[in-house]
Design a protein that fits this description.
alpha+beta; Glutaredoxin; five-stranded mixed sheet; two-stranded antiparallel sheet; 7 strands; 52% helix; 9% strand; binds iron/sulfur cluster
Length: 388
């Protein structure tokens, strides 16, 4: 498996696959071709949701004067990009999820593994044979994560706190109003402190929808779940920063397993791979913070994946707003439940995390294309029909 660093990327929202990865490709083209690239052709999901996901605006900020064309070609990757100088094709790339980019001419650079295992079962066996905890396993293969993850958490905190202060409408024709501040104020008056968690998730997801700089966890669309749980743990439960950083390591490992055995891209696997993975990350992080052992951490993450199998991606009009923002707020709450139930249901639990991840990937491949970041199915379809 690759580095946990690959999971947490700082970049402009609202979509890791539609803004962060294309921006990386644009930056690569700018440096390699010194402004000579004249045309980008973007395929499939970019045609249906590129506008709402702010792809074209993002690319034009980096490659000024570029001509952008969109096409549907089912034989190509759902998020394929081609760069031309006049009519000559010079580079091809795929946005492969979580802000990761596969540039065809740079293949070797993208395939560096730092962990020797890619199945959780193998990690458990290795930990047992070497008397390691899950955290000690991560530290053995990536001993230099602390300062990186400290910066990542600071950025997450900043996004939560900025997001909580905002009011008004998010960009775009849906006229979605920001709710984080209002939910936070309701939490202050409520006996149920869990409402704070939703407020934090809303704050981050609204900042993402507004195209601000956020941290992928594991994607932009699902970036509110992990910060919400960790912010709650740090500021309501007074968890030391060292433990928060360790929790980010555990969460990162879980997302790494999904990335290594499937995909983090909603355009390939549906929302289950984005929100489902984010909830698995937050569930495992919170389970770690509760002092749970490796089997209980696995169980918490597994419940998140198993019980979001089949979750479709159908953002209305291509904006990462409905259902995405509320989905983060609900997902963060589920992480608490998964932690508790993961422990309670552990005895004779038959489904492993590896099995759940494999099922999720295959389910994603089987889901009809219109439910995978095209805005042509589900809520997107019915909302647009009703509001013609
Ligand atoms: S529905 Fe889920 S996968 Fe699709 S854009 Fe929204 S958060 Fe991302």
């Amino acid at each position: 498996m690759k580095s946990i660093r690959d999971i947490y990327k700082v970049g402009f929202g609202p979509s890791s696959s539609h803004t962060i990865a294309p921006a990386k490709f644009a930056q690569f083209l700018l440096e390699r071709y010194q402004g000579k690239v004249t045309k980008l052709v973007l395929f499939n999901s970019f045609q249906t949701t590129g506008n709402g996901h702010l792809t074209f605006d993002t690319l034009k900020k980096i490659l000024t004067n570029i001509q952008i064309q969109t096409l549907i070609d089912k034989k190509k990757h759902p998020l394929h990009m081609e760069a031309y100088i006049q009519e000559q094709l010079v580079e091809e790339a795929d946005s492969i999820g979580g802000g990761n980019l596969h540039i065809y001419s740079q293949e070797v650079k993208e395939l560096v593994d730092v962990y020797p295992h890619k199945k959780f079962t193998d990690i458990i066996n290795y930990c047992q044979n070497n008397s390691l905890s899950l955290l000690e396993y991560i530290d053995r293969f990536e001993p230099d994560l602390n300062s990186f993850l400290t910066k990542i958490f600071k950025r997450m905190v900043n996004v939560v706190e900025v997001g909580l202060k905002q009011t008004g409408y998010l960009p775009g024709s849906l006229k979605v109003s920001r709710k984080a501040k209002s939910v936070y104020e309701q939490a202050q008056k409520s006996k149920d402190k869990r409402l704070y968690i939703s407020a934090y998730a809303l704050a981050v997801s609204e900042e993402n929808a507004n195209g601000q700089i956020i941290v992928t966890a594991p994607t932009c669309g699902s970036c509110g779940v992990v910060p919400a749980i960790l912010y709650y743990s740090k500021y309501h439960q007074h968890t030391p920063i060292k433990e928060i950083i360790n929790a980010l390591k555990v969460a990162g490992l879980i997302a790494n397993l999904v990335a290594s055995n499937g995909t983090l891209s909603g355009a390939i696997g549906g929302c289950q791979v984005e929100i489902g993975t984010a909830i698995a990350m937050a569930s495992s992080a919170y389970a770690y913070l509760q002092g749970n052992n490796i089997a209980e951490i696995e169980s918490a993450a597994e419940l998140a994946i198993e019980h979001h199998l089949g979750l479709t991606c159908d953002p209305i009009k291509g904006y990462v707003q409905i259902p995405c923002i509320e989905r983060n707020a609900i997902g963060a709450l589920r992480a608490l439940d998964n932690t508790q139930l993961g422990k309670a249901l552990l005895e004779n639990h038959l489904i492993s995390l590896d099995t759940a991840i494999a099922s999720m990937y295959q389910t994603g491949l089987d889901i009809k294309e219109k439910y995978k970041e095209t805005s042509r199915g589900g809520l997107a379809k019915y909302y647009q029909e009703k509001n013609k």
